[in-house]
Amino acid sequence: MTRGERIQGKLRERLAAEHVEVVDESHLHVGHAGARSGAGHFRVLVVSERFAGLGALEAQRLVYEALSEEMGPEIHALSIRTLTPARWRAGS
After folding, report:
1. What is the maximum alpha-carbon separation in the chain?
2. pTM > 0.85
3. Among 9, 14, 55, 89, which residue's beta carbon has the most beta carbons within 10 A?
């Protein structure tokens, strides 16, 4: 199982996400200080009803909490986009 697949699984499980996309962008950061330690750079899209009624910062905090064990040793940088299922279906 790849690091991206593990991240996707945790987000699905811990946030009851109906859709998760994980893009490993580590290859774009070769030579960067964080990349030298082996931690990766990832971009995620998470669609979950748990984001309903939350602001962007609050929703991103939930993602960081779900991945707290990976932050540092596995993930150096994380770009996050969060949507409710309704907003995702509407094409936002």
Report:
1. 40
2. yes
3. 14
